[in-house]
Design goal:
Elements: H1 3-27, H2 32-65, H3 69-88, H4 93-96, H5 105-114, H6 117-129, H7 133-162, H8 166-184
Helix pairs in contact: 1-2, 1-7, 1-8, 2-5, 2-6, 2-7, 3-5, 3-8
């Protein structure tokens, strides 16, 4: 596979990560550098690992989750998105910003899985095409990290302009990304 084709695949896979990071960046105005580093590394590592797992796991695993992988991604993104919306609409000022930081812990893990499920299927197709998986996975992971960092920084700029409403916008973006993933599979 030539680099331009791999670049387009990596860019396409990174679009969901960019969109999610944009939504998260809109609510992050504290510790932006560390938050961007955490989410970029996590998303990039998952995007790196999932094609390898798909390539290694073969058709059996894809057959097991292939029929509902889009539902998993939709559910995870919607769950986190609605939490952000709820917290953005809280009446008490302290409650609004007491959300669980989406760039840490279990929430980061859920978002990392949700944004990298498609990379698993790409890895499977790479196995059928006999594509060099390590090089391809590195390109995909690096591209995803760069796109995630870009999404965080652009989203943060929007968050600074919008203030408190940024949590609601960020949550809506996550739900919309989940819906987009769901619609792409119908």
């Amino acid at each position: 596979m030539n680099f331009s084709t791999l670049f387009v695949i990596a860019f396409s896979l990174g679009m969901d990560a960019f969109s999610v990071a944009f939504g998260v960046g809109a609510i992050k105005n504290k510790e932006l550098l560390m938050s961007t580093l955490r989410i970029s590394v996590s998303f990039g590592m998952f995007q790196f690992a999932m094609p390898i797992l798909g390539w290694s796991g073969g058709k059996l695993i894809t057959d097991l989750i292939g029929g509902f992988d889009h539902w998993i991604a939709f559910g995870l993104l919607t769950y986190v998105g609605f939490r952000m919306i709820r917290e953005g609409m809280a009446s008490n000022e302290d409650e609004k910003w007491m959300y669980n930081d989406p760039t840490k812990g279990f929430t980061l893990f859920l978002l990392s899985i949700a944004t990298s499920i498609d990379a698993f299927a790409v890895g499977l197709s790479f196995a059928f095409l006999k594509v060099e998986i390590l090089y391809s996975s590195i390109v995909i992971g690096v591209m995803c990290s760069i796109m995630t960092a870009s999404g965080m920084l652009i989203g943060s700029r929007l968050g600074n302009i919008m203030g408190k409403r940024a949590a609601i916008v960020g949550g809506v973006v996550l739900v919309l990304v989940g819906l987009k993933i769901l619609m792409e599979h119908f």
